[in-house]
Design goal:
mainly alpha, Growth Hormone, Chain: A, globular
Length: about 400
């Protein structure tokens, strides 16, 4: 057989860009499918809010070592094989969720989702930048960020509706999700974007951020940590908060509330394309405390309107802040170490998802969920205001260039 016959068919770069965007979207749909189902698991298996947040956070506890291990691998051996491994692990996690009947499978499935995201995050972000036909870094960052937020938004809505109105509430969402993941296998035919490959070396090490960008990297990562801390609250405890405040136990409504926040984030990211990354970060940090205050005040004032407003404003603050931080990181990262720097950024971002939420979950056991959420809102708001002060004083080449 000729060499031409054996050659793997290759998708065009534009087709590969959009295929990878779809794959990112589905990856993050999968990570938030469990959100409205946590209360079902909690009622069936009788575990506390602290255990609930641990199930959520084990995702991050496995994601970070995965980022540390795989963040630089795709810079060495190429993007395609790393991406196929990552998405395959995500599918395995969804399959285990579909058959889960105890705590151990829930922890295992969530851990596999974390490993999957860690494998994909750095390699996928770098590949999107390299596949963008005009080399437009902001457009590539926008595609990744919106796929992240939109996928995360669709997950709770998708699973909440299916669980409330369909059969097999803890199985059907995952079975349909697995069918939707099938087109991702076409990544095997996308062009490889790493031209100079190095020897394979699997090691657990912190991403080394170049000295000349560390100040800007730290600022962008702190912004992402803060906005994701607010989002993490919605992704775990918000359905329970809505149920306590409004007396609504409908899974579709709980999932829709979380989705509303994340859709607001996606809309804000669309708008922020017209802004410099510094302006986008500033708007996000201003909106976040306003939204969190509305969320906290909804309890003493028993206001559904404030609850809704809080979700929308927190979502917008997340969208502006996260995309602004990602664009800054993409502008700073040297080409040869792009995936490694992106992995470092994701590590800090996902710590923001996990650590504060664990504290709120265990705090809720002692103080009650409503008071724990109010304290959390105050602390995260202080972080956002402090970062606004730092931003006003920070003078960097990246900011001046924008």
């Amino acid at each position: 057989m000729s060499a031409a016959a054996l050659r793997r068919p290759v998708l065009k770069r534009t087709s590969s860009f959009w295929l990878l965007g779809y794959a990112f979207l589905m990856l993050f749909v999968g990570t938030t499918i469990p959100t409205p189902l946590y209360r079902v698991y909690q009622q069936e298996l009788r575990f506390s809010s602290g255990v609930l947040t641990l199930i959520f956070a084990v995702y991050v506890l496995f994601l970070i070592p995965s980022l540390l291990t795989f963040g630089q691998i795709s810079d060495r051996i190429g993007r395609r094989s790393v991406l196929l491994l990552g998405f395959g692990l995500g599918g395995l996690g969804a399959a285990i969720f579909a058959g889960a009947e105890g705590l151990a499978p829930l922890f295992l499935a969530r851990a596999l989702q974390g490993i999957s995201t860690g494998v994909v995050a750095g390699a996928g972000t770098a590949a999107m930048l390299e596949l963008e036909s005009r080399g437009n870094r902001q457009r590539a960052a926008f595609a990744v960020s919106v796929a992240n937020s939109s996928g995360a938004a669709l997950g709770p809505l998708f699973s909440g509706v299916l669980a409330q109105y369909g059969p097999w509430p803890t199985r059907l969402p995952y079975l349909i999700y697995l069918a939707l993941m099938l087109p991702i296998a076409a990544i095997a035919f996308m062009p490889e974007t790493v031209s100079q490959r190095r020897s394979f070396a699997l090691e657990l090490r912190l991403p080394a951020v170049p000295a000349e960008i560390r100040t800007q990297f730290a600022f962008a990562s702190a912004v992402s940590f803060t906005v994701w801390a607010a989002a993490g609250l919605f992704l775990t405890l918000a359905p329970g908060y809505v149920q306590l405040l409004l007396g609504l136990g409908n899974l579709a409504i709980g999932g829709a509330f979380v989705s509303l926040m994340l859709f607001a984030s996606s809309g804000a990211q669309l708008l922020s394309q017209r802004l410099t990354h510094k302006a986008s970060i500033t708007v996000g940090l201003v909106l976040l405390p306003i939204g969190l205050a509305s969320l906290a005040l909804a309890n003493p004032w028993q206001s559904g309107v404030l609850l809704l407003a809080g979700a929308l404003v927190v979502g917008a603050g997340h969208g502006f802040g996260y995309l602004g931080a990602m664009v800054l990181i993409n502008r700073l990262a040297p080409e040869a170490r792009r995936a490694e720097v992106a992995s470092g950024f994701y590590i800090v971002s996902y710590l923001g998802v996990a650590l504060p939420v664990i504290a709120v979950g265990f705090g809720a056991q002692r103080l009650g969920l409503l008071l724990a959420v109010a304290i959390f809102a105050g602390v995260v708001s202080l972080f956002a205001l402090a970062l606004l002060g730092i931003s006003a004083r920070l003078s960097s080449p990246a900011f001046k260039a924008s």
